[in-house]
Design a protein that fits this description.
11 strands, two-stranded antiparallel sheet, alpha/beta, 7-stranded mixed beta sheet, Dehydroquinate synthase-like, alpha domain, Rossmann fold, 43% helix, 2 domains
């Protein structure tokens, strides 16, 4: 049961690409590349863990492979330079294409390199984690981190093709599966703020309540449904607001505080999804605290997050001034005002400007108590 989600951004006639979702798609990787990309040469960027597992699929005609170290801590300008210089040494030019083969870190960095190399060449996303299949491989956000914050250097640059093979999820450890599920659950909270939902068969929140066992059992049909639903939701946001001028910011639900956790722990203690779990809980409690949602809605929402048991680590105790300082350099800050994506009832969210620092402090103290 393979599925296709088409991304066509009418405001930019050059952006029209397919997302293929299915089982064992990697066996036909050369067919997809020839049909939908048709580059002269391919520069494949992956990491050591992925390369060890999927080396047989990367023996693509007219290709070169660069294998990087694993981890978010390598998502930086040093690695950017390594990718760019390696591509140049391989004589990659404007008729060629970059392929990101891996998770979100590989996808973000490779896409950013493709967007700047020779002022932009084609690139392909082949996401191998649940997190990258439902989120980072779609929509064209690419970039690298700095010591000051996450994705502070980046671009909007759409791929030519996304190939999401759910068989790759069989090789994920439980922790990395859960980090992807955090982003899946995020979509459930924002679903009704997104228009054009004709491709969504079930309300995602209910689907997740009913199918936890099937998801953790890696049932193929269930996983394809989950990935497709999330891709449709993100597609429907991106086609309305490609460069985050308004609606697309709702995709940052849970990310304002989540990015603080990642930054203040040097991207080493928590996975992205684990940080977003705490970010969503923070946003839900803040929403309740300022009167946007009821106690029942808060409890129902937290119950879904807790039922998936996505993280067992305690929230660190940070110096509060460091939390605020980190939030102030977040990309979502406008006019020096702290902005949060907060919950409304009925699986909707709003972007709220100028949140009171005392409210932030109260919620943080509640969560570490």
């Amino acid at each position: 049961m393979n599925e296709t989600v088409n991304v066509k951004i009418t405001s930019n006639e050059n952006i029209n690409y397919p997302i293929f979702i299915g089982d064992n798609l990697l066996s036909d990787i050369e067919y997809y590349l020839k049909t939908y990309v048709n580059a002269d040469k391919y520069f494949i960027v992956t990491n050591k863990t992925i390369y060890k597992i999927y080396k047989k699929y990367l023996n693509i005609k007219n290709s070169k492979v660069l294998v990087l170290n694993d981890g978010e801590k390598y998502k930086n300008l040093d690695t950017y330079n390594k990718i760019i210089n390696s591509a140049a040494k391989c004589n990659i030019n404007r008729t060629d294409a970059f392929i990101a083969f891996g998770g979100g870190v590989i996808g973000d960095m490779t896409g950013f390199c493709a967007s700047t190399y020779m002022r932009g060449i084609k690139f392909v996303q082949i996401p191998t984690t649940l997190l990258s299949q439902v989120d980072s491989s779609i929509g064209g956000k690419v970039g690298v981190n700095t010591n000051m914050g996450k994705n502070l250097i980046g671009n909007f640059y759409q791929p030519k093709l996304v190939l999401a093979d759910i068989s790759t999820l069989n090789t994920l450890d439980l922790r990395n599966l859960k980090t992807g599920l955090a982003e899946v659950i995020k979509y459930a909270f924002i679903q009704n703020s997104i228009n054009n939902q004709q491709n969504i068969n079930n309300l995602l929140f209910n689907y997740l309540q009913e199918n936890k066992k099937h998801i953790y059992d890696l049932d193929k049909t269930t996983l394809i449904n989950v990935v497709k639903n999330c891709c449709c939701l993100k597609r429907d946001v991106v086609i309305q607001d490609e460069k985050e001028k308004g609606l697309r910011a709702i995709l940052n639900f849970g990310h304002t505080f989540g990015h603080v956790i990642e930054n203040l722990t040097n991207y080493s203690k928590y996975t992205h999804g684990e940080a977003i779990v705490y970010g969503m809980k923070f946003a839900l409690n803040l929403s309740y605290n300022i009167g946007l949602i009821s106690q029942d809605y808060l409890n129902t929402s937290l119950n879904l997050i807790n039922d998936y048991n996505l993280i067992n680590k305690k929230l660190p105790k940070f110096k509060f001034s460091n939390i605020i300082n980190t939030m102030q350099i977040d990309k979502k800050v406008e006019h020096n005002k702290l902005r949060f994506v907060l919950n409304n009832e009925n699986f909707m969210v709003s972007i709220i400007n100028d949140i009171d620092i005392d409210d932030i402090k109260n919620i943080y103290n509640l969560m570490i108590s």
